[in-house]
Amino acid sequence: MKIESVVCPSAGGAFSLNKMIDHLIAEYNEESARITQERLLAWSSASVYQSICGIEIKPLTARAWVDLQLAKNEVILGDGYTDGAIAAYIWRVSKDFVCANHPNAESLSGKIIKQIEDFDEAFIEVLEHISAAFEEMPRSNGTSGGGFTRKNGFDDIEGIVGAIDEVSARYGQNPDEVIDWPLNRIFQLQKALRLATVPDYKLRQPEKIMAIRSEFLKQLNNGES
């Protein structure tokens, strides 16, 4: 869905206000297109669709997330980053990754470090990669009439296992296969099954979309909240 252009009725400052609104409309439509593309990429045959520092990477899967958690990767734990943590994350999601206990893991990670020229920029790109993976995580607005409430947090490994369990049971899949799916795909299916099976289940819009819409409405009200 796209937001269409609007014309502000007020004369004073109309040009400036319309310019701001046009910018928000463009930002909303661009973000909507990006989210749609990310959703489709989770189902695409082109699993390698992105690169960090020139290194081809795959979508973040549930198994990769678990591996990085167990390895206590600083990026995943939210403890900032070290050069090694950035390299370890990129290696784990890279196209060439084989297994977590690869005998040459340290040397492969070292090769990645040599390819990274700007670790601050690499850190930003890694965070964007993680954000895209969790963007589809179900967040409920609550319900009306059904009285169904549920916390949809994924703060620990049990949350991921819960998501895998839901999807596996609904679609008759082996959990050992689902864990290797992109998180984006798992969360999309989790949303679909809840909408189909839970009466009055309501999902919130993506956070970035909600923020843009909020600012859009604020500008329409001449800057008033």
Could you explain how this protein is built, in words?
Residues about 5-10 and about 145-150 have low confidence and may be disordered. The protein has 10 helices and 4 strands, in the order αββαααααβαααβα. It is about 55% helix and about 5% strand. The chain has helices at about 15-40, 60-70, 75, 85-95, 105-115, 120-135, 155-170, 175-180, 185-195, 205-220; strands at about 50, 55, 140, 200-205. Strand 1 and strand 2 form a beta hairpin. Helix 7 crosses helix 9 (about 185-195). The chain has 2 domains: about 10-40 and about 135-225, no CATH class; about 50-135, no CATH class. The strands form 2 sheets. It has a two-stranded antiparallel sheet with strand order 1-2. It has a two-stranded antiparallel ribbon with strand order 3-4. It is mostly helical and about 220 residues long.
Topology:
Layout: H1 14-41, E1 50-52, E2 55-57, H2 62-70, H3 74-77, H4 83-93, H5 105-115, H6 119-134, E3 140-142, H7 157-171, H8 175-178, H9 183-197, E4 202-203, H10 207-220
Antiparallel strand pairs: 1-2, 3-4
Helix pairs in contact: 1-10, 4-5, 4-6, 7-9
